[in-house]
Amino acid sequence: MPNPQKCRKTGIFEEPTLPPERPSVKRSDIPRRRSAGPARGGITTADNRRGSWQAAALRPSFAAMTSDSGPAGIPAATIIIFRNAPAGGAPEVLMTVRSREMTFAGGMAVFPGGRVDPADFALAEALAAEHGLAHDEAAHQIAAVRETLEETGLALGLAGDISAASAGAARQMLGQTGALAPVLAAFGWRLDLAQITPFARWFPKNENIARVYDTRFYLANLGTGAVEVSIDQSENTHLFWTSAQGALEAADRGEIKVIFPTRRNLERLALFASYEEARAQAEAIPVKTITPRVIEEGGQPWLTILGDAGYPVTAELLETVARG
């Protein structure tokens, strides 16, 4: 695998080309704080220059994260939408700032998405076989399509006579019905789930919080991105396009706040020079369920994830971790 190159400011690592094999990182490679000197082994830690603005409040909720036990999660789906940068350069992804009134991740910058509703499972029952998917997976992909239309106004994962006007009308109808099936019937559209690619699955089932989401992440591409997006006025307060690297730098400057899974996903997305590279890696690395765990190293607690799931950074000092 090529030698990693350090990205100034964020402490993440990029490889010049898509790695030919999955990265393998040992927990024993976790270095001490950067201030203590050079890191040991394969460096996969997050940059530790961020403040510990929530450290004291976070520790109790992470206390149980040394095991894999926990409650059943709330099924959820998130879609990472790419577009070509208007001025060239790295591709951009669509992010949204959640309303501070939201119980989960209020005020945080995240990717569009939400929970899988009963209506999504019902539609999946009818269409899963047609798309060659298991019922559960089809329901999550349908939820990703529905949430994208609802939160952003983008008709991704859909096919038919789709225009800006019809997408806007469909979004309005979706807000009234809360289900995708009647929208498909009314506009003569059909699902085209080949447009989205499974990317990751995060399930912090061992975290001691009231709501634990079992979230599947997907990739989709707008290409030129010559479309309008707008917030849904309920769950979100702001939609914006940014490169993954740009989002990381904005978070380090304190302009946006990102929770642990979002930061790890942004670091992974920053590896890619195009949507095609991102999709190629997603298809090459089987999706594994990521359940972060706390380990002790060098007398300090670290929040860690799997080392073979495609992520360039697999550990962060617990005191710097932010969550909703």
Topology diagram in text:
Blueprint: E1 5-6, E2 13-14, H1 55-62, E3 74-83, E4 92-98, E5 109-110, E6 113-115, H2 118-127, H3 135-152, E7 158-159, H4 164-177, H5 181-187, E8 190-191, E9 197-202, E10 213-221, E11 236-243, H6 244-252, H7 260-269, H8 275-284, E12 289-290, E13 293-297, E14 300-304, E15 315-317
Parallel strand pairs: 3-10, 9-12
Antiparallel strand pairs: 1-2, 3-4, 3-6, 4-5, 4-11, 7-8, 9-10, 13-14, 14-15
Helix pairs in contact: 2-3, 6-7
Task: Describe the fold and architecture.
There is one protein chain. With 324 residues, this protein is an alpha+beta fold. The chain has one domain: Nucleoside Triphosphate Pyrophosphohydrolase (Alpha-Beta Complex), CATH 3.90.79. Helix content is 27%, strand content 21%. The strands form 4 sheets. Strands 3, 4, 5, 6, 9, 10, 11 and 12 form an 8-stranded mixed β-sheet that branches. A 3-stranded antiparallel β-sheet has the order 13-14-15, with no helix packed on it. Strands 1-2 form a two-stranded antiparallel sheet. Strand 1 and strand 2 form a beta hairpin. Helix 2 crosses helix 3 and helix 6 crosses helix 7. The longest helix is centred in the middle third of the chain and has 18 residues. The chain is globular and about 60 Å long. It starts with a strand and ends in a 7-residue tail after the last strand. The N terminus is likely disordered.
The CATH topology name reads Nucleoside Triphosphate Pyrophosphohydrolase
Report the CATH architecture: Alpha-Beta Complex
What distance separates the N and C termini? 35 Å
Structural class call reads alpha+beta
Mean pLDDT figure: 78
Task: Write down the overall geometry.
Answer: globular
Following the backbone from N to C, one meets helices and strands in this order, namely: EEHEEEEHHEHHEEEEHHHEEEE
